[in-house]
Amino acid sequence: ITGMLQACIYILHSYVGFDSVSTVALEVKASERSLPIAIIGSTIISLLLYVGICTVMVGLVPYNLLDSDSPLAEAIKATPYGLWLSIIMNLGAIAGLTTVIITVMLSQTRIFYTMADDGLLPKIFARIHPRRATPWLSILIIGD
């Protein structure tokens, strides 16, 4: 049971962020059509990537040998050229984290704007730039 609960937590964290698409709905043209496609599409792509990577990992190395802090790197090390491939994979993970940071910063500016518009934050956060039509103070604070 504990392994199953642990897997549920990992699965939950795997899909955190797909809802960031909805925070920028005001910036998107024809959001009624494109927003559902983006959310469902990103969820399906994430699912396929996770299932594919897990399938390949278990095919490379037995699952009981993948008990480390970086099981994907351990599985890749079991292949020919594994050391070099694991370095490339780790660099790719760092690049992926960079995109996550940018996405979170973009989403947070719109969340501040919406909260201020709803009265949960001071109204100054809901100020819109007259020329660019963006929540400029939220962008300035977050550093977007």
UniProtKB/TrEMBL annotation:
A single MF term (Gene Ontology): amino acid transmembrane transporter activity
Keyword tags: Membrane, Transmembrane, Transmembrane helix, Transport
One of the record's GO cellular component terms: membrane
Transmembrane stretches, start-end: 37-61, 81-106
Membrane topology: Multi-pass membrane protein
Location in the cell: Membrane
InterPro entries noted in UniProt: AA/rel_permease1
Protein name as it appears in the record: Amino acid permease
Annotated organism of origin: Rotaria sordida
